[in-house]
């Protein structure tokens, strides 16, 4: 187990290094950070001073080593917009994002398993057709649009919930539901498909020949077997949520998390803050990947630890 | 076991691909959802191709006189603007038609680039095998764990927003799925007796790839590309919505939703119709792709038949019971 | 004769496929008496497994029972409305073990849990008692170190050991009938003998009736009291095992014996039956074996019913004629 974790950690470090290299190439070689971060009105002297301050006058290799060193010590520089260390801003906003994701994905996981299971029991039945239709719609709806429609219906017309911002639990409802629809659709379809697959496997025939009822077979036998694929797809969905969906949903609902901060940072040309966000998210993704792999191995006794 | 055993051993083999295109069409018409999906796809492609001829107005033409007109069926609506106008008096319908052009172009070009890159890498890795294979696939593993949209935003921020930046970035972040698929198929096909035989009798690698392996890849690759196309459409819409994709005065459905957002409370149609265009496009493609996937797979076809049969039987039983 | 345990009467099963309806069973009738071992032989597709699955209520979409009756001790066992009542019989009084022990056990549940589950359900044992019973059962089927093995998963067992586990589950509630569907086909030859020996031993100890489904006549000869030979969804011949082997009446049975190594003392060479069984989409109304039969003629196009011949029954109007004499 320990060896597996070490290997997995090593792979994680590779990913972070890959992100580092990509960001370095994009920001330092392709783009011009000085032009990006300083206002158009900045004088030539100001530009030169800034370039020297962030080390642009050094040879490329030195620049890269310094870049890596800064990241290793979590020193991403000061946010131009907030005028304090970028990492501080990130750690301040991160909990809000995690709260939103926990609520949204949590709802998706809770709902998808019973929905998918019931659909799988009667493929082509009423529940199944209803679930599949909603699922297909869920996969087709862009989250920014769904969020706006939800605001019009539930916040403006019905006045049940606040339109945007963060504060009470009621503020969480609309963003979390908006965030949950796509993962819910994907989870439900996955649970349904693998449940149908599992129900056709020989061990289910054995269980039926034992005289077990369908509910018990579902609950005790097949559920356990879809847990491993479910873990891996929910991991993927967590990763895409963390690095994509939240940006959109937080923007629509003005939810003060990392996604909204990222958009604001880009609009203000705050490269250092943006870099800090990208790296923290990359770290989180690597971490999630490792935790998921360990969990899968814990659930499935067949997996060899290599 | 029994069921599959029987259908396999006792039924005359069912041709996997229906002989005449006519029977494929009749089968498609049987699945109403897929048929409607295909009809919508064709409609959208038609609109995109002939946008200058079909669209009633120039999408960028402003008219102060006709600002924020509602759709035709509302009290203040007029036949001149079927789906109403925006805050600058631009015709919503025309903008949606031109937006189809932007969306389909970006989607198609991105898919083509990503699929080509992915297929080449996949073929290379699967065919050479060994060290090259593991290095390439490790690269894929690493890039798959990159923080998607965030990284795209960073790149776009540095390079400056624009259609071609977006296409380039989306291609570079989407080729991995194709590489994985192709490599998987190649390495499994290489172990089949007919490819081994071809190699034993001395076929050159190029010939083995093009004559024996590529034909096996086309169908799954096409299905994947169709599904990926919807992902690209959604990603483009999201990035344009955030303001980092297609830039005005060009049009895009995501961009239109973003600019309609400020008028959400007084002109709901500005957000609703471009959004619906995205939903309908993605939904149609998914419905059609799903049907295509099932239809090209004989085993899935048999399963679909069995499911329809059970549902029919269940309904009949319920009718008898009632 | 005492009342049979299991009685199947004119059973029809069909499968709806895109190409049409496959008639997998076309009027199968047989009975099993308490304590006896009945072998069902036939080539793949002849309907032997489908018969077993029909008894266990395992016919799934696209298949369905389209006619006939299955009686367990005189009570109907299959059909739409009786499944609930039958659930107390399946797994309790009739149990089944399957062809492939590698996939027939749940890979993510411990062996102990899978055995204990069935005694908890049918015998009302509490968890501890069920576990105790599971350990006894493992020892009874010849698995050493039962206590330790209970906590292991199927992948830690060999194929033969897994089939022993399946048998342990099969006898857990002291059933009256055990259906074994090709129990040794997936196993090594040496292991096959051990499993068959175990079945024979258990039968003697528990007075269990066994239905043994196989395509291997050698296994039937060693273990069964009675044999039913199936061909194209019908039973073509039944009888005591000795009588069938010494004096087979149906041309198909004769051909089957001639093509099995080590059974036919008179012939030195093995000979195959030419041709293939008919498709069951449009089965012939007469004898299904006619196209392959050396002695068949126009009269065989009429439906053939099972009739008593000697100590068994045969569905052939020329029963008893030597079909393959001239072929040698």
From TrEMBL, chain B:
The keyword Transport applies. It comes from Sinorhizobium medicae. The gene is dppC. It comes from the Bacteria. The keyword Transport applies. This is Dipeptide transporter membrane component of ABC superfamily. It is a multi-pass membrane protein. Keywords: Cell membrane, Membrane, Peptide transport, Protein transport, Transmembrane, Transmembrane helix, Transport. SUPFAM superfamilies: MetI-like (SSF161098). One of its GO terms (cellular component) is plasma membrane.
């Amino acid at each position: 187990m320990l060896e597996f974790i070490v290997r997995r950690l090593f792979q994680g470090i590779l990913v972070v290094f890959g992100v580092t290299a990509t960001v370095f190439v994009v920001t330092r070689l392709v783009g011009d950070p000085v032009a990006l971060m300083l206002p158009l009105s900045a004088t030539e002297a100001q530009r030169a001073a800034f370039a020297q301050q962030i080390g642009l006058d050094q040879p490329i290799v030195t620049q890269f080593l310094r870049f890596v060193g800064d990241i290793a010590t979590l020193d991403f520089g000061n946010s131009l917009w907030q005028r304090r260390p970028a990492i501080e801003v990130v750690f301040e906003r991160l909990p809000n994002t995690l709260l939103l994701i926990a609520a949204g994905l949590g709802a998706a996981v809770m709902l998808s398993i019973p929905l998918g299971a019931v659909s799988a029991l009667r493929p082509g039945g009423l529940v199944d057709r209803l679930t599949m239709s909603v699922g297909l719609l869920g996969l087709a709806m862009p989250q920014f649009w769904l969020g706006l429609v939800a605001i019009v219906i539930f916040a403006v017309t019905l006045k049940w919930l606040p339109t945007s911002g963060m504060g009470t639990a009621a503020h969480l409802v609309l963003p979390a539901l908006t965030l949950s629809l796509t993962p819910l659709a994907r989870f439900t379809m996955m649970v349904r498909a693998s449940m149908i697959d599992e129900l056709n496997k020989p061990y289910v025939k054995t269980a039926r020949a034992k005289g077990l009822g369908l509910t018990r077979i579902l609950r005790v036998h097949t559920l356990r077997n879809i847990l491993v694929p479910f873990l891996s797809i929910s991991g993927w969905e967590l990763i895409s949520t963390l690095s994509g969906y939240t940006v959109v949903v937080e923007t629509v609902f003005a939810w003060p998390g990392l996604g909204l901060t990222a958009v604001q940072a880009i609009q203000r040309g705050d490269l250092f803050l943006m870099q800090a966000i990208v790296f923290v998210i990359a770290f989180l993704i690597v971490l999630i990947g490792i935790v998921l792999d360990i969990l899968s191995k814990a659930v499935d006794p067949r997996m060899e630890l290599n | 076991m029994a069921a599959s055993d029987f259908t396999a051993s006792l039924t005359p083999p069912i041709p996997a691909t229906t002989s005449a295109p006519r029977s494929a069409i009749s089968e498609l018409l049987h699945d109403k959802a897929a048929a409607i999906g295909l009809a919508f796809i064709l409609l959208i492609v038609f609109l995109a191709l002939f946008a200058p001829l079909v669209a009633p107005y120039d999408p960028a033409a402003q008219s102060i006189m006709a600002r924020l007109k509602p759709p035709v069926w509302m009290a203040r609506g007029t036949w001149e603007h079927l789906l109403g106008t925006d805050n600058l008096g631009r015709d919503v319908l025309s903008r949606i038609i031109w937006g189809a052009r932007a969306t389909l172009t970006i989607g198609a070009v991105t898919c083509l680039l990503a699929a080509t890159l992915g297929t080449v890498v996949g073929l290379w890795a699967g065919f050479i095998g060994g060290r090259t294979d593991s290095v390439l696939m490790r690269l894929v593993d690493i890039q798959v764990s990159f923080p998607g949209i965030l990284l795209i935003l960073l790149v776009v921020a540095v390079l400056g927003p624009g259609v071609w930046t977006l296409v380039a970035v989306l291609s570079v972040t989407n080729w991995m799925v194709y590489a994985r698929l192709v490599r998987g198929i190649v390495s499994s096909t290489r172990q089949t007796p007919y490819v081994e035989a071809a190699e034993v009798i001395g076929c050159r690698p190029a010939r083995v790839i093009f004559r024996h392996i590529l034909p096996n890849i086309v169908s799954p690759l096409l299905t994947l590309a169709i599904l990926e196309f919807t992902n690209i459409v959604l990603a483009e819409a999201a990035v344009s919505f955030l303001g980092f994709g297609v830039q005005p005065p060009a049009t895009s459905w995501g961009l239109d939703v973003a600019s309609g957002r400020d008028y959400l409370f007084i002109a709901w149609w500005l957000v609703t119709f471009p959004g619906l265009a995205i939903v309908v496009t993605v939904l149609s493609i998914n419905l059609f792709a799903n049907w295509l996937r099932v239809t090209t797979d004989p085993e899935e076809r048999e399963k679909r038949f069995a499911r329809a049969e059970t549902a029919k039987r269940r309904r009949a039983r319920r009718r008898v019971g009632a | 004769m005492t009342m049979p345990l299991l009685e199947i009467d004119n059973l029809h099963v069909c499968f709806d496929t895109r190409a049409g309806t496959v008639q997998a069973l076309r009027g199968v009738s047989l009975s099993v008496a308490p304590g006896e071992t009945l072998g069902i032989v036939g080539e793949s597709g002849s309907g032997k497994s489908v018969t077993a699955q029909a008894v266990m209520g395992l016919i799934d979409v696209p298949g369905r029972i389209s006619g006939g009756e299955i009686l367990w001790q005189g009570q109907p066992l299959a059909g739409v409305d009786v499944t609930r009542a039958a659930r107390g019989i399946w797994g309790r009084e009739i149990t089944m073990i399957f062809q492939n022990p590698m996939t027939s056990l749940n890979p993510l549940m411990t062996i102990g849990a899978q055995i204990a589950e069935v005694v908890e359900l049918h015998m009302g044992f509490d968890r501890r008692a069920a576990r105790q019973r599971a350990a006894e059962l493992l020892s009874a089927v010849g698995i050493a170190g039962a206590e330790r093995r209970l906590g292991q998963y199927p992948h830690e067992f060999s194929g033969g050991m897994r089939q022993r586990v399946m048998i342990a589950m099969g006898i857990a509630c002291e059933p009256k009938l055990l259906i074994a569907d090709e129990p040794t086909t997936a196993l090594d030859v040496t292991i096959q003998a051990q499993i068959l020996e175990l079945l024979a031993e258990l039968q003697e100890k528990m007075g269990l009736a066994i239905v043994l489904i196989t395509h291997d006549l050698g296994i039937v000869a060693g273990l069964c009291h009675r044999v039913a030979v199936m061909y194209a969804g019908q039973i073509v011949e039944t009888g005591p095992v000795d009588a069938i082997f010494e004096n087979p009446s149906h041309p198909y049975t004769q051909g089957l014996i001639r093509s099995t190594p080590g059974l036919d003392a008179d012939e030195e060479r093995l000979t195959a039956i030419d041709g293939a069984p008919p498709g069951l989409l449009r089965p012939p109304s007469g004898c299904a074996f006619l196209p392959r039969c050396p002695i068949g003629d126009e009269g065989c196009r009429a439906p053939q019913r099972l009739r008593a011949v000697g100590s068994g029954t045969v569905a052939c109007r020329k029963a008893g004629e030597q079909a393959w004499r001239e072929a040698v």
